[in-house]
Design goal:
This protein has one domain (4-339). The chain is globular and about 60 Å long. The chain has helices at residues 19-41, 49-64, 83-104, 109-130, 152-172, 177-181, 183-198, 204-216, 229-247, 262-278, 281-291, 298-317. The chain is mainly α.
Amino acid sequence: MFRPHNTHKLVTKEDPYHIHKTLGIICLANYGYRYYLLFTTGDMNLDNNVAAVFVGAHAALSLTSLIFHIPAMRNKSAPMIYPEYRLHSIIFALRSCICFFLTWHRCSIVYKFAVCYLTMLGADVVTKKYNPGNEPKSTTMRDMPFDNKIGGSEQRQITLMRSSQQIGATLYMLGNLETSFSPMFAIQFAAFLMTLVRKSIIDSTAWHIIYNLSLWINVFCFYSKSLPIGYVVFQPVVYYAFDYWRFYKCNNKNYSVIFGNKYIGWTAVFAAFYIYDKGAFDKKIANIFDDYYYGGELDMIIRHIFIIGYLVIQLQKSRGILNVFRLSASPTEDIHEKTV
């Protein structure tokens, strides 16, 4: 699963001045530091000029990935970077950066709606360019290859779980500084993990397991002191409503053409958040909790319930990937670079 003896392959001639590598190290360290602060203090300490500079470094990291030559076609046997995925990764990472700065400058939530719409449109344009209608339709994340030891039904369940996580990532753009910043970790870390797969440092199963963890860590943003309890309660309600709207068609063949359309669904979601924001429901919900405060513990009890419940659900959905540990591992060769 892990082959650390291949780490020397990360040094390439395409980054002679080590700009991308240096940015990568800085950004990984920044993620570690911010999550450390979140777990120990309940605050990532992002509301300052130094943090803003580091967020700019994350944007630069994604953009400098364009210097690398990558295979023109998707590798169907292992998760590796290809043109469509790289552009999607850049677009969604920049979404986090822009929404972070919009939040930092306390701009209207309407601007965040616009950024999310533009992100979806940009991703669709990229998909149309690299996945024309005369070819079998695929998506960057939903068609990510798995180890053949993981069954088809288990693969579909894990894939559906990840699609739901993308809903949560978009909703996080409408929260505070922590929730705008945190989803970028999974986006950028997934690309790094794909590089490790290509260099035969990790295998496909390791990629899937670590990528899942990078998705789930976002839920701990609910610990953020500056994230209102109203958002903590309201966001999951909207999340599951949209998830039902978007993916109900997977279990029901009689859905209408409109049902499941992401643009219609997100328009409804943004309208709900606009009403929530303008109606000052943060304060109204907080007042309800103040009336039933139970010695000041109710706020954290609710946050713990949502976090634990979320993790239990995601682990249950991803249990299929753990089956590989019950199977005898077969020896593998460093073949990844030969297949691209």
